[in-house]
Amino acid sequence: MSFTKILLTIAVIAIIWFGFKYLARVAEIRSRGGSRPAPGPARPEPAKPLGEDVQDMVKCRVCETWQPARTARSCGRGACPY
Fold it and tell me: Cα–Cα distance between 68 and 11 in angstroms, integer?
């Protein structure tokens, strides 16, 4: 027997083997009553309109850090305006 015939025979047996395993798995899923699991969201959530999560920022003159204007707190230095 030639080498190619042996490889072809092994390939055919492997295809049949994995085909039966696949069909058995499909039959098991159907017998449990479940179909494929529900996929996640198909598309990303739409972006929020501008201004909904936007906050005004203020810069501290002393330490030069930016903070939300509504909740600005002191940076702990003596000349801090907040």
Answer: 66
